[in-house]
Amino acid sequence: MGGKVIDFHTHILPGIDDGSRNIDTSCRMLEMAVEQGVEIIIATPHFYASRDRIEHFMEKRECAKAALLEKLRDFPLQLKCGAEVAFFRGISRAEKLHDLTVEGTELLLLEMPFVPWEASDIDEVATLAEERGFHILLAHLERYLDIPGNKRRIEELLELPLHVQINAESLTDWRRRGRLVRMFRDGQAHVLGSDCHSLHRRPPNLAEGRAVLEKKLGREFLERIDKGGCELLGI
Ligand SMILES: [Fe+2]
Predict the structure, then answer these.
(1) Which of 46, 162, 186, 208 has its CA 20 to 30 A from that of 22?
(2) Dihedral sign, Cα of residue 36, residue 32, residue 42, residue 180
(3) Is residue 1's pLDDT more than 70?
(4) Own/partner pairs for 150-159, CB < 8 Å, 24+ apart?
């Protein structure tokens, strides 16, 4: 059996972060995702430990999810909730982090800082992946590739048992496309996300990224990515 088309990174839940502003926008984003063949959408609102508590975040997320689930009856698509967890010093010791994994999994979408990383940052990710049992999914790794001084840290990170998510939009950028396609080919990138925030600025665009991967690596390779995505979700 083939895999399913999964969007691993979205800000589709209404009114919870800088993504969808209201339920109407979320519904139109869902429509766009369905048109693009998405079968499972993972809602990953931003979580910043410096601004929010996990309990409060979970309450807000449940409300937003309930509102969207009511509308979801009209869509042939499955919704799962997670979070885009911004890395912070001490994250490897944080309690209740499991609440932020994608529902029914140990998968944690981790957003690394947009500044040069310290060796201790990599150690903390290693602790999460190797000692605390999280399946780490690094959000949009391509956004960190050119941070000065980060090259070695990225190599260290990629040696850890974790997975890498790339934004579909980055594959449509001809300057970055070649390098990212090679990362998929070489097993250094694993799944796509739209990282959609609204209808116009960063819209649902998974199909565009998938088209690039299919053109460059072939249909079978894309199916392997879909299967790998299902494995990450344990389905
Ligand atoms: Fe995001």
Answers:
(1) 208
(2) positive
(3) no
(4) 150/116, 150/117, 153/116, 153/117, 153/119, 153/121, 153/122, 156/119, 156/122, 157/117, 157/122, 157/125, 158/188
Between CA 1 and CA 22 the distance in angstroms is 37
Cα–Cα distance measured from residue 14 to residue 150, given in angstroms and rounded to the nearest whole number: 34
**Domain map (residue ranges) of the chain:** 6-232
Three-point CA angle 136, 141, 145, nearest 5°: 140
CA of 10 to the centre of ligand 1 (A): 6
**Third-level CATH fold of 6-232:** TIM Barrel (3.20.20)
Q: Nearest 5°: phi and psi at 81?
A: -105, 145
pLDDT in tens, 164-207: 999 999 999 999 999 999 999 999 999 999 999 999 889 999 99
What distance in angstroms lies between residue 1's CA and the mean position of ligand 1's atoms? 30
- DSSP characters over 114-163: SSPPPHHHHHHHHIIIIIS--EEEETTGGGGTTSTT-HHHHHHHHTSS-E
The DSSP call for residue 102 is -
Ligand 1 mean position, distance from CA 235 (Å): 23
Ligand 1 center–CA 134 separation, angstroms: 19
Question: Residue 200: which region, alpha, beta or left (left: phi > 0; alpha: psi -120 to 50)?
Answer: alpha
Report field, pTM of the whole predicted structure over 0.90: yes
Segment holding 41, helix H or strand E: strand 40-43
**Residues 5, 39: contact at Cβ < 8 Å?**
yes
Distance 46 CA to ligand 1 centre (A): 7
